[in-house]
Amino acid sequence: MNVPKKVRLVEVGPRDGLQNEKQPISVADKVRLVDDLTAAGLGYVEVGSFVSPKWVPQMAGSAEVFAQIQRKAGVTYAALAPNLKGFEAAVESGVKEVAVFAAASESFSQKNINCSIAESLERFVPVMEAAKAHGISVRGYVSCVLGCPYDGDVPAEQVAAVAAELYAMGCYEVSLGDTIGTGTAGATRHLINVVGTRVPRDKLAGHFHDTFGQAVANIHASLLEGIAVFDSSVAGLGGCPYAKGATGNVATEDVLYLLNGMGIETGIDMGKLVDAGQRICAVLGKENGSRVARAILAKRG
Description:
Blueprint: E1 8-11, H1 13-17, H2 27-39, E2 44-49, H3 62-68, E3 76-80, H4 84-92, E4 97-103, H5 106-113, H6 117-134, E5 137-143, H7 156-169, E6 173-178, H8 185-195, E7 204-208, H9 215-224, E8 229-232, H10 252-261, H11 270-284, H12 291-300
Parallel strand pairs: 1-8, 2-3, 3-4, 4-5, 5-6, 6-7, 7-8
Helix pairs in contact: 2-3, 2-11, 6-7, 7-8, 8-9
InterPro entries: Aldolase_TIM, HMG_CoA_lyase_AS, HMGL, PYR_CT
EC number: 4.1.3.4
Pfam families: HMGL-like
C-alpha cells in the first residue's frame, strides 16, 4: 500500500496531555498552549473535556478555555463529551466537534467507567442523536487496542467489533488507542488489517503511547498500512497511570520529525511547535518529553 502523501495530526496535549497533571494549571496557560499550537500550524486541537470535575479536576475550566482561545479559520477545536450532559455543555461553549470513547477490553471498561463495553456504547446513542440534530461531528476513541493492564492481550477481532459499532453509530473517524503503549509494529499492522475489514482505513486513526518506546515505530507501521491520521501530544505531555514513571502520549515533535523525513506534508512549523512545548513545560516545571525537541533545543544552545 502507498504511504499517504499528507497526514493530519490531532493534537491532544491540552486535553489528554494535561488531564493527569496534579498541579493546578491556569486557564490563561491552557489558552496560551492552544493558541501556540494553532500558530505552529496544527489544524486540529483537542482543547478540553466536558466531564465531571469530580473525576477529572484538571478539565474543570474547559468552558473558559473555549471562551478565550483565538479561534482560527480552518482549525477544528474539539472536546471530549462522553455523555449528554457533557455534550450540552460543549455546545454551549461553541464546540463544533466532540469525541466519545469506548474500550476494547471488558475489564478496562468496568474499572475505568464502571460499565460493560455494550453499556458504554448504549450511553453514546443520545449523544450521537443530539450531535446529528446540532450538525456536530463526532470522533470515536477505542482504548486498549494492543493490550490491557488487566486482561493482557486484546484480540484484534474484539477491537474491530467495537470500532465497527462506533462507526455504525455515526462516528466519522475512529481512533485506535494503544493506551498502555505495549504495541509493536507487527501487532499494529495486524490490528489495522483486521479492523480494516470492518471500518474503512480512511476512517481510522492511530493513538500510540510511548511507554515502551515503540510509538514512532507503530506510527511508521500504520503509515505503511495507509493510515493518514495520528493523535499526538506536544512535548509528550501525558503520563501513563499504569506504568509509573513511563511516558504517555507520543510527542508531536517526534511524529513530525518522522513525517518530515518521509516527505509527508503536515503544514506544521517545527520551530514554533518546539517553542509551544517548551513554554508549557516551563509552566509545569518538567523536562520536555520529546527527544526531537530536546535535540533541537540542544542545537540552539
